[in-house]
């Protein structure tokens, strides 16, 4: 099983489970401790200190059994008093020292992210750094090895809450314990990730962008029925009202810059200056974005899925969001990293549609629709906690507050933006209801 690092940390619809087929290379670090001899220690060779890419589907009897085992472990942790709180408000990293590091080390030992043999030193050494990376990987956080505000918040979720989270999600997982089909797709919304499954094993993983808190991606069971290459995007009324009108008020060149045309009821093209943007007049017209992978909000391909919500899965020209921890950025659709690999897998049983032909059609720029034969089952699910057969327990933020604990999402989630702002994604509309 290949070991990998979970990269984490636009408005374009889309919409971790956890990683892409080709995670981006780590940038060179400016950390002054990078040259320490501690980096030569064997901590990074220990299998238990890494989180591997799993080929076990999240919707599978194996995951159900592993989650049941995780519940037993967390029951023992809770019965033993849980884990200590890590002082917040300070950034801990390689070379830090003090009582906060002692508490952090104890916290990681209790949750199994480092071994008890590492001792109780007050120094943030390479063992603690490896444990933090492992913890971050299990929680869908960028593997920096640094305890920042986001990591500290996840560390300080109580063991009791984590146990309840596992118990709630076990019910969800059991509801999918039946036969889901030989070939199917699972999109796990809280993880902002998609996996394709064939013969009981994950074939491809895809980082995804999913719905914002106020424009949630729906939980549903459906089928992928058609692939649209080089699609037009027709802007729906909800996006015209919420996004397009405010953008035109701020920048009169927005439509032109984004290759969006305006048509009246007689299908005659209008110029943007003919519309009163200080009113709702724009709702009387049809807006369509030209095809083009570099600017079209749907990118080069859209995947139609049968549903009453007007959502779908698609490519995006704003690839930067796939490197963010926070990927709840769409109007309900799901957009995919490495979408061509995803489409190639969907079209596997359509004669003549290999990867070379797919690339050729995309290069042509022509609109081509391909019906999937047969249609492929697709499951959009909401799973915030689960166990893996390798003994690694995964948690994700309850972004839509469906676990029933109350409270509120993280500060970044409430603001509806990525933790790390991305200049590639800040000036695009969110597609939804394409050509509805």
Q: What is the CATH topology classification name of the largest domain? A: L,D-transpeptidase catalytic domain-like
Radius of gyration, Cα only, in angstroms? 23 Å
Helix content: 10-25%
Number of helices: 10
Topology (elements, then pairings):
Elements (H helix, E strand, L loop, with lengths): L60 H19 L19 H12 L15 H13 L10 H7 L3 H16 L8 E6 L4 E6 L2 E11 L8 E10 L3 E3 L1 H14 L3 H4 L2 E4 L5 E2 L15 E4 L11 E5 L7 E2 L13 E3 L3 E3 L2 H8 L8 H10 L3 E14 L3 E3 L5 E3 L15 H5 L21
Task: Describe the fold and architecture.
- The chain is globular, with a radius of gyration of 23 Å.
- It contains ten helices and 15 strands.
- Helices cover 25% and strands 18% of the residues.
- The two termini are 43 Å apart.
- It has an eight-stranded mixed β-barrel with strand order 1-2-3-12-10-9-4-13. A four-stranded antiparallel β-sheet has the order 5-8-6-7. Strands 14-15 form a two-stranded antiparallel ribbon.
- With 436 residues, the protein is of the alpha+beta class.
- The chain has three domains: 106 residues, PGBD-like superfamily/PGBD (Muramoyl-pentapeptide Carboxypeptidase, domain 1); 192 residues, L,D-transpeptidase catalytic domain-like; 56 residues.
- The N terminus and C terminus are likely disordered.
- The longest helix is centred in the first third of the chain and has 19 residues.
- GO terms for molecular function: carboxypeptidase activity; transferase activity.
- Pathway: Cell wall biogenesis; peptidoglycan biosynthesis.
- This is L,D-transpeptidase family protein.
- It comes from Methylocystis heyeri.
- Keywords: Cell shape, Cell wall biogenesis/degradation, Peptidoglycan synthesis, Signal, Transferase.
């Amino acid at each position: 099983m290949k070991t990998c690092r979970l990269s984490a940390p636009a408005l374009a619809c889309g919409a971790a489970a956890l990683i892409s087929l080709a995670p981006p290379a780590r940038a060179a670090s400016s950390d002054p401790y990078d040259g320490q001899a501690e980096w030569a220690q064997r901590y990074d060779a220990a299998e238990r200190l890494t989180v591997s890419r799993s080929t076990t589907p999240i919707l599978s009897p194996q995951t159900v059994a592993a989650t049941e085992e995780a519940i037993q472990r967390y029951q023992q942790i809770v019965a033993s008093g849980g884990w200590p709180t890590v002082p917040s408000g300070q950034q801990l990293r390689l070379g830090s020292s003090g009582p906060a590091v002692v508490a952090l080390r104890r916290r990681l030992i209790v949750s199994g992210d480092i071994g008890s043999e590492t001792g109780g030193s007050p120094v943030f050494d390479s063992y603690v750094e490896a444990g933090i990376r492992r913890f971050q990987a299990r929680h869908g956080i960028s593997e920096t090895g640094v305890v920042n505000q986001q990591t500290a918040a996840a560390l300080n979720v109580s063991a009791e809450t984590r146990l309840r989270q596992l118990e709630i999600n076990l019910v969800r997982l059991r509801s999918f314990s039946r036969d889901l089909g030989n070939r199917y797709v699972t999109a796990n919304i809280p993880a902002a990730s998609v996996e394709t499954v064939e013969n009981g094993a994950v074939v491809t993983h895809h980082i995804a962008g999913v719905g914002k808190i106020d424009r949630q991606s729906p939980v549903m069971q459906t089928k992928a029925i058609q692939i649209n290459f080089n699609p037009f995007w027709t802007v729906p009324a909800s996006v015209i009202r919420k996004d397009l009108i405010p953008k035109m008020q701020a920048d009169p060149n927005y439509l032109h810059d984004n290759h969006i045309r305006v048509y009246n009821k007689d299908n005659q093209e209008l110029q943007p200056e003919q519309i009163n943007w200080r009113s709702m007049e724009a709702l009387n017209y049809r807006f369509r974005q030209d095809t083009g992978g570099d600017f079209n909000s749907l990118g080069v391909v859209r995947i139609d899925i049968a549903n009453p919500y007007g959502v779908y899965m698609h490519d995006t020209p704003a690839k930067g969001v796939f490197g963010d921890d926070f990927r709840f950025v769409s109007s309900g659709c799901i957009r995919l990293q490495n979408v061509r690999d995803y489409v190639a897998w969907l079209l596997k049983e359509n004669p003549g549609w290999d990867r070379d032909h797919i690339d050729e059609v995309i290069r042509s720029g022509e609109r081509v629709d391909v019906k999937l034969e047969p249609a492929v089952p697709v499951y959009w699910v909401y799973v915030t906690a689960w166990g893996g057969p390798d003994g690694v327990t995964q948690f994700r933020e309850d972004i839509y507050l469906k676990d029933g604990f109350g409270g509120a999402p993280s500060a970044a989630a409430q603001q509806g933006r990525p933790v790390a702002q991305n200049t590639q994604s800040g000036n695009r509309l969110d597609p939804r209801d394409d050509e509805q």
